[in-house]
Amino acid sequence: MISLSKLVAGEATVSKHITYGGDSSFIPKKLKEFASSFRPIVVWNITNRCNLRCLHCYASANSDVRELTTEQCFQILDSLAEFKVPLILFSGGEPLLRDDIFEIAGYAKKKGIKSVLSTNGTLIDRDVVENLRVFEYVGVSLDGLASTNDRFRGVEGAYERAFNGLLKASEVVLSGIRFTVSKYNYRDVLPLIKMARENDIPRFCLYHLVPAGRAEFRDDINNAERRMLVDNLLNEAEREGMEIMTVDNPSDGIYTYLRLKEIDSEKAEMAFEFLKFRGGDSSGIRLACIDHNGNVHPNQFWWDYTIGNVLREPFEKIWSGEDELLKKLREKTKYLRGKCGRCRYKEICGGFRVRAYRYGDIWGEDPSCYLSEEEIQ
C-alpha cells in the first residue's frame, strides 16, 4: 500500500510507517529489529459468503457456509496476539454477513490488535453503523459510478446501497473507497474521486488488478493506460482534502519518486528512503493472509499455496518456519529475472510476485510494470 499523497507532500517518513496510520515524530530505537521481525499485517478472509457476485473477486466468493466458529476465531486471535501481529484487515466474502464480526473485532482489540474492515458496504445500515466504531478504518468497495459498479457487482442498486453505507460509516469511523481497476472501469476513476471529494470522503485507494479467483488477465488495463492513470492519481494526490493510495503495484512508488526527482529533490530523497524501508512487495514478509478455513497464505491472492493452518499450529511457528517460498520471498532480489532482475530499483520494488506467478514465472518480470528501460537503468 503506497500513499501517493504522503509521498508527494513529503510526509511519507520511515517513522510514520511503523504503525498503520501512525504519526510519531521520531524513529523508534528498535526500528530495524521491527522491520526485520516479519510481524505481518494479516488479511483475514473471515468468510467466503457474499451477497454480491463481483466479476473480479479474487476469493471467488459465493454462498459457501463453511467457516470458522466464533471460538475458533478467538483461538486464532490468541495466536496472532502472541506473535504481536499489529493489525488485521477483516475481509471476505462479505465479513458483515457474520453475525459475530463485531464480537471478533472487539476480541482482537482486547488482545491489542488493531483492525480494519473491507466491505462492499451494502449491509451498512443504522443498526450496523454504531458497531463500526470497533474498527480503525472501514474501506467500502466501489468500482465505478452507478451503472459500472452495478454491472461489476452483479446486483442492480448495489452502488446506491454501498455509497449510502459509506456515508453512514464515515459518521462514526475513518472511511474511504476501495477501487479495483480494470479495462472496464478505469475511465470512472476521476469522476468517482470527484464525487468522493464532494462528499468529504477522506481516502481513495486504488487496487491494481491481480488475476486470481474470478479476475482474469484479459480484464486488466494495458501499461500505457496504467501509466496515464497513475499520472492522474498523482495530480489528485497533489490536492488537499483526500489521501490517494495505490495497492499491489510497487512500481507506483518508483514512478512517483522519478516524477518528484524532476521537481523537488528533497521530497524525492525522502520518498526514496521511505520506499527503501518498505522494500516493495511485502507478501510473505510484512503481509500474510488467513482464509475462512484457517489456512495461512503469503497474501490474499495466493490461495493455491498454503504455508500451514493456524488452528493446528501457532501462527508464529508457521510464519517463522522453514517454508521454502517464504524464505525466497524474503530474499527475492536474489531470484528476480527479466526486467525486474535488471532494474536498478529492485531492492525497493521487486514487482508483485504473485502477479508474475499468475503469468507463468514467479521470479519473472511483473507484467504490470509500466516503467521504461531507460527509467530502470
Q: Looking across the biggest beta sheet, what order are the strands in?
A: 1-8-7-6-5-4-3-2-9-10-11
Overall, the morphology is globular
Strand percent estimate: 5-15%
Main structural class: alpha/beta
CATH architecture verdict: Alpha-Beta Barrel
The helix tally amounts to 17
Order of secondary-structure elements: EHHHEHEHEHEHHEHEHEHHEEEHHHHH
Q: What is the CA-atom radius of gyration, in angstroms? A: 20 Å
- Overall number of domains: 1
Separation of termini?
25 Å
> By CATH's scheme, which homologous superfamily applies?
Aldolase class I
CATH topology: TIM Barrel
The low-confidence runs, each spanning 5 or more residues with pLDDT under 50, are 14-36
The whole-number mean of residue pLDDT values reads 89
Biggest sheet, open or closed, and with what strands and sense? 11 strands, mixed
Give a verbal description of the structure.
The protein has one domain (2-17, 34-322): Aldolase class I (TIM Barrel, Alpha-Beta Barrel), CATH 3.20.20. It contains 17 helices and eleven strands. The chain has helices at residues 4-9, 14-17, 31-36, 70-82, 101-110, 126-129, 146-153, 158-169, 189-198, 223-237, 251-263, 265-278, 315-319, 324-329, 338-342, 353-358, 373-376, and strands at residues 2-3, 41-45, 87-91, 114-119, 137-141, 175-180, 203-207, 243-247, 287-290, 295-297, 308-309. The longest helix has 15 residues, at 223-237. The two termini are 25 Å apart.
Layout: helices, strands, pairs:
Layout: E1 2-3, H1 4-9, H2 14-17, H3 31-36, E2 41-45, H4 70-82, E3 87-91, H5 101-110, E4 114-119, H6 126-129, E5 137-141, H7 146-153, H8 158-169, E6 175-180, H9 189-198, E7 203-207, H10 223-237, E8 243-247, H11 251-263, H12 265-278, E9 287-290, E10 295-297, E11 308-309, H13 315-319, H14 324-329, H15 338-342, H16 353-358, H17 373-376
Parallel strand pairs: 2-3, 2-9, 3-4, 4-5, 5-6, 6-7, 7-8
Antiparallel strand pairs: 1-8, 9-10, 10-11
Helix pairs in contact: 4-5, 11-12
